Amino acid sequence: MKVLKPSDTRWLAHERCVKAVKESYISLVTTLEHNYETFHEPEALGFCKVLSKFSTIASIYLLDYVLPIVAKLSLTLQKLDLSSVSSLVEAVLNTLDDAVTPAANWILEILSAKDNLIQVTKETINADRLHQFQHTIGKPFIANLKENISSRFASNDIVSAMAIFDPRNAPRDTSVAEFPMFGKNSISLLHNHYGLQKPALTLDGQETVKLPIINSEVHSEWVTFRSLIVKKPKESISSQLSELTTSETLVAMFPNLSKIASICLTLPVSTASVKEVFPR
Description:
Layout: H1 13-23, H2 25-39, H3 42-52, H4 54-77, H5 85-97, H6 105-121, H7 127-152, H8 156-161, H9 184-194, E1 198-201, E2 207-210, H10 218-229, H11 237-246, H12 248-253, H13 255-265, H14 272-277
Antiparallel strand pairs: 1-2
Helix pairs in contact: 1-4, 2-3, 4-5, 4-6, 5-7, 11-13
């Protein structure tokens, strides 16, 4: 029997490892007990004691519920357009709340399997004990996880504003009355975020000033650039951003937009291919 080992560079590895342990839990405990009794392996006894703890069982089932939600967020972000980030993150946060409800799926799963679990672990498993674990361990864990996710997407409005670089979001007809307004609010939002001097803190906690990255000319640049976007309706946002940052002509014509595009290219949503390359 081979237990999967999670990899820090593969974001979905932990989900697969937890699922494998859960699905093979009875076999794992039984095998470890056998190895200790037959071969007198102290490591087997140590692992067996840890696996047989009630807290370990509850943690495995809780993680098996939570990790697929987080993994799905990771995978979906690699495929969606930037305008969907805000609603997607909100949906994930709401789904995580289900883990701390009295009738959470992971609790029901343990209760349905408790006879087999009790047989191999000799632990007391009941609803009261599970709800106590949920209150003392599960709720703080979910709260911290939600806070972590929220902090990583604190600038959802900025990320959504960058969706204007996606040709798929551009009007197909430049003659419609709505075209002059396309991207106007988003550019204003980006200018206010990246184009104004703001107070900030250094790494050692000293007060400093965050200098503007772009200037007010970004508005006039956008008026010209949006006409180019509509001519490439089938181009991906990554191709559009790459061209805007690597083409000497475009960088010279749209210096402010080029800087925003460079920032956009560093977002996890647009660097899926990088994640796949580094672990190899």
